[in-house]
Every structure is written in C-alpha cells, then in structure tokens.
Design brief:
Number of helices: 14
Radius of gyration: 23 Å
Structural class: alpha/beta
Number of strands: 10
Distance between the termini: 81 Å
Length: 330
C-alpha cells in the first residue's frame, strides 16, 4: 500500500461521521396528528424531525426563556391567536417564500410572513337534527335571541378558540354590539359551559340543549364513528361576512440555525398532497384552496368563510377576554 493510499484511508477513518439533517419542531398539535407526516418527510428528504409537544403558552414561554440557545426550528400552534402572540414577542422570523405565498391565501397568514396557516378550523353552529330545523338558524348573533333561551350550549370562555371567535366579532361588529351578543348567549345557556367541544356535541345529542358553537372537526370525529349521530353542522353568517374560521399553522423560530431547511419543511407542509393528509387526519379544512376534503367534511357542504385576516384573533384577544368576563361567560 502506498503512503498516499494509507494517508487517504486514515483520513477517511478519522473524519467525523456525516449526520443526517434534523429539525426540531415545538408543536401544540397533538403528536398522533403530526408524527406520521413528520416520518413521511424524513423518508422523502432524509431530514429527521424531532418534536416536542405542549400547550402553546408553555411553548412560547419556553422559546422566550431559551432565547438564542433554543434548539427549536419550527413553532406549530392550533390557533391564530397563539401564532400572533409568538410573532409579536419576536420569536418567529419573517419568511420570504413564493411557494408559501402562492399556496396559502393572504388572510390565512401573517401580513409580515412570520407564520402561515396549514389547516382551517371553522367554528360555527351545530344543532340537533331531532329538535331544530336548519331554517330556524342564521348567524351566530341570532343565538342571542330569546327564542334560544335555555337551549344553547357553549364551551368555556377560557378556551382560546372562543377568545379568538369573540376577538373576530369585535373586529367585525365592534365592542358594544359584540358584548350585547355575548350577554345574550350567556342568558340563553341551558347549562354551565363545557370543558370541551366533544362534550358539548354529546350534550346536544342527549337533549341537554339544542344548539351550540363548536369547531367542526370535533363533530367530524363523532360522525366518523357514528354516521347516525343526531347533530349536524350549520354554516353561520352565509348572508353576511361568512362563517368564522381559525387556523392551525406554523412559523420559523427566529433563533433557528436552520432557517432554509425549516422553510423547505413549511413549503412541503403546504404542498397539495400533504395538505390533504394534514387536514383529513383531524377532519379539518386544508389551508390551500382546491385540495380535496375528507368525505365527512365534504358532506357538510360548501360554505363562505369570513375573509378577515385571522391575525385579528391575536390582535384583539385581550379585549375579547375582558369582554367575556364582563358578560359573565365563564
């Protein structure tokens, strides 16, 4: 063996092993909903995805505490208000991506490009198919009328989905009118607010109340398991601005050392084939227009969504919480 060959052999043995690329995702989205997709990304690209799951407030505080030492590359949340909070605290980096801008409508992403929706989560009216006719329903404000006294169920005001709903109402109809509506809802409650939307839907089915407001995917799960479940979706406000829509979405962590790789990951999540899987696993609506819906979701029929930028859910969230407290929504 020549001296040159021996030198090359020794160099190859002593060289550090090339490690596969890895992204760290801090996610509020439940692990079973994202892990199969993350594993698919690894198979397709060779980039490993390591995830850490927790509630958005916990993850936001963790990112803030870790600062420049964080290992996180992507932050994923299930509410526009949480994404807004992270962005406003300087934890998310602006992204310039023609692919993301083409895939995700402008009202479903941060105006400064710091986060992008990955699925839509409509929050609208659901009703008993045994005791309510769809012709009796219209907008969510209508549920404040006396005809619904003792017939309405709501989830707790502490849930961010309701805070985002009220924040968007403030943006649309102002503080005074929104407070009138919320007070009417409280007056019409059939029982104390529920801890989650699944319990609410089951209460309607059991006859405890006749109508309610929920994120539609909760009903999708119940209908998937029991197609005869006696509760159905009503798309609210179709004669007006459209049904309220929230989002799950993600942004690139400002302190990430792998922003290019993180951007490619977000672009992959916004691609047509992945969008169908991302949304259908939880009976949500793809953020990207034109993507096929899960059959359970498609059965609810087409609807007009409120085109307001979902970032208002965060910008007006503090006002919403105060209003809900004044109105007695617990």
């Amino acid at each position: 063996m020549s001296r040159l060959t021996l030198s090359l052999l020794l160099a190859s043995l002593l060289a550090p092993a090339v490690q596969a690329a890895e992204l760290v995702v801090y996610t509020e989205r439940k692990e079973p909903l994202v892990k199969p997709l993350f594993e698919r990304y690894e198979r397709e690209t060779g980039t490993k995805i390591q995830l850490l799951s927790d509630g958005a407030p916990v993850l936001i505080e963790r990112l803030a505490a870790e600062g420049g030492n964080t290992r996180a590359d992507v932050f994923m949340a299930v509410d526009a208000g949480s994404l807004w909070q992270a962005a406003e605290r300087g934890l998310l980096a602006p992204v310039q991506s023609p692919a993301l801008e083409a895939a995700i409508p402008a009202n479903l992403r941060d105006p400064q490009g710091r986060w992008f929706a990955l699925s839509q989560r409509a929050r609208t009216i659901v009703y008993s198919t045994e005791r309510v006719q769809p012709s009796e329903l219209s907008g969510i404000g209508d549920l404040a009328r006396k005809k619904w006294r003792g017939r309405l169920c709501l989830r707790s005001s502490k849930k961010v989905y309701n805070q985002s709903l009220v924040a968007t109402l403030i943006e649309r109809i102002g503080v005074e009118y929104t407070e009138t509506v919320v007070r009417g809802w409280v007056a019409n409650l059939a029982t104390e607010p529920f801890a989650d939307d699944t319990l609410l839907a089951k209460a309607i089915a059991a006859g405890q109340c006749d109508v309610g407001l929920i994120n539609t995917y909760y009903l999708g799960r119940l209908q998937h398991d029991d197609p005869a479940f006696p509760v159905q979706v009503f798309w609210a406000n179709q004669a007006g601005v459209g049904a309220h829509v929230n989002v799950s979405g993600a942004g690139i962590v400002a302190a990430s050392k792998q922003k290019d790789e993180a951007r490619k990951f977000l672009e992959w999540l916004a691609s047509e084939s992945v969008q169908a899987d991302f949304a259908s696993v939880n009976f949500e609506i793809p953020a990207r227009p034109g993507v096929a819906l899960d059959p359970v979701v498609a059965a609810w029929g087409p609807f007009k969504a409120d085109p307001v930028n979902v970032s208002v859910a965060g910008a007006r969230q503090a006002e919403a919480v105060k209003l809900m407290d004044r109105a007695g929504w617990r």
